[in-house]
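User: Structure please.
Assistant: Input sequence and predicted structure:
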Amino acid sequence: MLKYTTSTFCLLLATVGGLINMSLAAAQPAIPEAGYIQLAQAENVGLDAPQVTRQRVVSLAEQRAQALLNSAEQYVRTHGTEGARDFSHLPQFVDRDLYVFALGMDGVLLGSGGWSASLVGQNVADETDTHGNHFFDRIISLAREQQRGQVQYFWYNPASANETRKVTNFVRVGDVIVAVGFFPERGTRTEARAMLRAALLELEQRPSEALSAFQDPKGPFKHDDLYVFAVDTRTGTFVAHGATPSLVGSNAVALLDASGRNPVREMVEAAQRDGRGSLDYLWINPMTGRIEGKRTYFRKQGDLMIAVGSYDPTNVP
């Protein structure tokens, strides 16, 4: 059994990093390659898995960003490249913390209503995020292959006063790339408890499909940094994991948090004894890539322990 200390986590996170991209047609929320015990990108549910038709919950920030992008796209379609320069000064292209920026296919920043306004007129292909990733260049590369897409990178979030994952959606209009980024919202403890109740109901009503549903990246059981995980209390192995499905089949009760405790083992023991409970411990937030305090709520249903937890960015070692 491997024990990962806080310093080990930090070293791993510093060396992994990386941009994640995907087509909006796929529309799957990606997880940064900085996971927790096992550093792995979230995988898709297999093609032979039961189909889950429920709509994924879309956060308010994502809705606002998409509305702003739609408006900016139409503006460029009407006004062309000159219209892209208007993003630097027209107020309708700024929505509080959200703003539009536009790139030429040659890498020149054409307009921006946000932090990058000082770079307008310059080639920004070599600009990097806080992990050294060339996210502007990645947007341009993707735009050469597809009309719409998404990149994810790490950026300073003034709301949380630290580096967090930022998602930027873009659309190519001729030789202009129009883009809007947003910081995915955090789940609350109330939302975590609500997701747990929904997961238990899903398991009761659709037992043969529930585990696949918990891992569907577009389903209702993966929302921002909230996700469901399920452990077989007889074997101590993961049977579902909404953030990192590759953990399924691995020894859940052997995992250590950053302080050296076995949180899943403690939860399984409490679930077998009391049927339900909650536990506070340290874990890597898949959205921020940082060790944070986490409170996980769990309940035993049959031989399974179903759990959902929320993160507290103020409780960081």
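Helices lie at 6-16, 60-85, 135-145, 189-205, 210-214, 263-274.
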